[in-house]
Amino acid sequence: MILESLRLSNWRNYEATTVSPGPKTNLVVGVNGAGKTNLAEAIYYLSIARSWRGSDDKRLIRDGAPSCYVEGVFRKGGRTRKVGIEISAAGKKVLIDDKPIRRTTDLAAVANVLAFSPTDVPLFSGPPADRRAFLDLAIGRENPTHLKELSRVAQILKERNAALKSEFRNDGYVEVLTNELIAAEKPVVLRRQAYVGRLIPAVRRVADKIFGRERPVDIIYQPFLDPGNGYEEAAKALYRDTLEGDYARGTTAQGVHKEDFCVMLDGLDVGGRGSQGENRILSLALHLAPFFLIEDEADKPIVVLDDVYSELDEQHAEGLTTILEELGQAFITATNKTISGASIIEVADHKAIRRE
Ligand SMILES: Nc1ncnc2c1ncn2[C@@H]1O[C@H](COP(=O)(O)OP(=O)(O)OP(=O)(O)O)[C@@H](O)[C@H]1O
Ligand SMILES: [Mg+2]
After folding, report:
1. Is the CB of 352 under 6 A from ligand 1?
2. Does residue 10 have its Cβ closer than 6 Å to ligand 1?
């Protein structure tokens, strides 16, 4: 998949700019504050209609402007399609080939973008919810059913928690909801487990290249229960054991909504023990790994890496550059960097211009 052209109108610090990127590595260069991250964020936004910085959509609109518009023309196989997103005080409109779409998950088929930004570095030391969100988003891109199953779990949990909090205790009703929950949770655990299993070799491959040598890297997924044989019985027993506690707190203490995974380096949890650079490298490896799980060339995502070189020493930076050669189209922002053969997009004076 390739982004053939990008148009920004009142997007963050850009008033109006259009750029046609190269088909392989694009180095996005400019001084601090020029708008490199804003440009990278726009490309990612086209794939998910959400900012990676978790910003409120209105903050994406250039100060003083009433609305903003970001547009990307994507080529996949022989087909070209346009994604346009407009944000205004009234909300956002997402269009594919000028037609409004109903679900933003439809974007992934047209604009699949893998992104990594410095805000992803603390992934391993941050809250479990961030790790679950990463995992579920990655799985959901491959299989949107996963997201539907997760919303079903969330819906049942909401009802169960409301029943737990109710003044009138109703054990029969809570049991019905618990059984529904158990059934809805099983496919979620199975998918997460299978996906982590596939991610491990891909993460190792990227990490080995950046480290420049083999280091033992592992991902440990912690399911709330083993989804194999005897799952239903074990789940019923678990929810029975925690029932009184759940009533006391008015919420469900166990389930897929509490799961977690950790990444191990040299046998230790990188979130607790790893250096800043190790956290950066492994988080980057984890974010890039899904690229290597997609076999069809036309489906391979566009990769956006914001500010990845700034904290890597020379040797690790070189390792990262060898990975870029294996990617398809990529956007790498940097203040000061040369990558031989890369296209250059220069950002200055609120404009992005292709130089080479
Ligand atoms: N909604 C907005 N309206 C106008 N300007 C904005 C808006 N949001 C952000 N900016 C400005 O955009 C500028 C560029 O930000 P950006 O983070 O893209 O820079 P950068 O090139 O990535 O810099 P660095 O090298 O420091 O990472 C900042 O000065 C910021 O204040
Ligand atoms: Mg930046």
Report:
1. no
2. no
